[in-house]
């Protein structure tokens, strides 16, 4: 019998992993040094060639004992490093070392959450964590927040006024499903709504909604969604009222708490009231904004969230997890009955009757990685105060950056940030120049900036998700843009 | 400014990770020792209570510095360990230490495959690996295998006869998408078929298909599928011919290469011929059987696979990856045009024109973890010969076990294995006793066996995926079942 390569679990697993992890850490260090900046130099073609040359044949006839070092080194050398302060384009967070280390345990033990006998403990851990997070969303949210201080930087786009909205008191306990991210959460939310109201359901969403919302309607076979204008970046409540009045139902309204372009929050209390008045179902995509729940200072900005039927959360944004760490919080757990699914090899009736938990109805996936492990470790290690502190740090940093832009004669600020996104542009530059400076910095490997088109113009976007970013870094970023804008 | 917890990437990332990884490895060792067997003792309620007590509050007000050790230890103590030789129920493989270590790099650098500026190198690595795997499926498959030796243990259910089927020569290069597993691959296959043929498409699948196939039809809004009988465990070709002749099209036929219950392979060449004759589209779910592609000895069993339009593969089965490592191989890359999706912040027209790759159409997800990293390291480190050797080892072990069962007067063997699944039952036991012995061994923490209902009777199932399992382990497993069957 030939020798087999070592396995990650079992009594010998940790000893087999130790030297391999050393190789990975060394390759990460060396690759990061070789890169030298927030992303590799040279632009797409050059970077692709460098990776291809470094990796060589990915499926050779016979194995290459250096493969682990080779591939990890090449990956690190050609990565856009989310921990680099000038890597600030997207909702692409630098993961915590703690969460990353915890995720190793998920990989090594490889529990799969489709049956109890593949994940006896992990399934209970998931129940604990999803219950706790669902309580953050739906629990005693409204009441608790009434006494919270007003938001630190109110903007005209923010609705923080407490309303008289009475949310239905719950008899069943809210729950949450773990997903691969906001997109799958939105897909599941639409599927649950379709099953609750039939395939004639009409999705109504703002022009500011994430692209995955209409894409999910396409996936699950709903009619073309109705798009409500969002001229100020948030869903227009009067236009929503009109749409719900004029269009035949049933309706699913999808609102956003933390838009991708500007980090704005739709007026959730007013939207929830309209939904209640029109008998519409409400989904809130809080993939970005949901992290504010952890902050006593910012939590009140999510007033009204607890009136939603379903809420998308995403801890690989304001939660500092490696991808994937999405959730769909569900107010009425009865909604999940439609996901119930029977497969004799996983949840036979007599096994369920004999007390084996039936996990198959917690996801559309079958084999399923326990992303809950890293989430559980992070929540417990940091606590609400620690996570809230990180949220406040990046929001404060975004305010600093907005102040810097606002005070600089060479730049125009779109608006003070609601969460941690700042849109800005060099004054007197046209859209082509804005697009060009971003691509130039990308190609030169000096900064990763995002872009957003709003108010009919193209803006540069920074999404501050790195709690280690210092005011100096932000000044350097602004200098870099100033010095490289064409014209 | 308060101190923030360390990040996983950047120049300081590896040093921050090192002590945390030590904590994880120690907690894995200690938790595994505390468990002492393939799974924890006591059954669902007791195990859940043990985990809850060990973990405590998952979202405390303030952080707990021991959280990483606490949670990982509890997880290991309450895991069903896929590396334990008596953990042999499901398509739930023990991951290679190598793949597990490589996955750490994906977590640490956190590339997200929805835009080039979040994954400059990872996106090229994915292109390399998916291209190589698509070539394994569609490449020169048929021609190459014509000279391969016949399968080692032919069974009446296996169709290994070369056929005169001429597959269409390709002008475009086949490709593959990376998914969360066989289930998402099947969903994507149905979506691509729906878009190619319209929502009137009729899915036709065998009674032996994985449950995710009809579930995917429900997800994407297709009509109730037509189920073709599979009395011998594989799709009945005459019944398929009849269904395709009588029912109005367009049709999508879903065949299986490696059934979940018995590891059988549908007669792919005949099915492909029928699809060609009736103008039906063909999808093959090779989530389990696809791994045979790596073995020169077993590859010929997949003859006909290259005639499919889409093929589900899953390297967290016969590929020894931590979940998730699914793929959907697509013969005609033009089929993917319907996934094309535009989001100004990720793939604006002017960016695409300027040469930034557009990655959004490679998945239904948006943020997407580079599961390709661990796959690339494994393929390169083992090569085709190394992976093929592992496949052959577990198939050989399954044959050994089948021989053991067959030679034992106290047991009945369902059939010699086609891949690595063996169904067996204690002779003279009724179904209740079969179900009971499995649950007893689960509750006592002594063995994880699967179950399958076929031929109208309930069987115990072992799916041998552990290349380290020895003949002794198999004898011990059989003794355990013998000694614990009631009645």
From TrEMBL, chains A, B:
Residues with the N6-(pyridoxal phosphate)lysine modification: 317
GO biological process: carboxylic acid metabolic process
UniProt KW Lyase keyword: yes
UniProt region (Disordered), positions on chain: 140-162
GO molecular function, one term: pyridoxal phosphate binding
Keywords for the protein's UniProt record, in alphabetical order: Decarboxylase, Lyase, Pyridoxal phosphate
Cofactor requirements of the protein: pyridoxal 5'-phosphate
One GO location term (cellular component): cytoplasm
Pfam families noted in UniProt: Pyridoxal_deC (PF00282)
InterPro entries membership: PyrdxlP-dep_de-COase, PyrdxlP-dep_Trfase, PyrdxlP-dep_Trfase_major, PyrdxlP-dep_Trfase_small
Keyword Lyase: yes
Similarity comment: family membership: Belongs to the group II decarboxylase family.
PANTHER family assigned to the protein according to its UniProt record, in alphabetical order: CYSTEINE SULFINIC ACID DECARBOXYLASE (PTHR45677:SF8), GLUTAMATE DECARBOXYLASE-RELATED (PTHR45677)
Protein name, per record: Amino acid decarboxylase
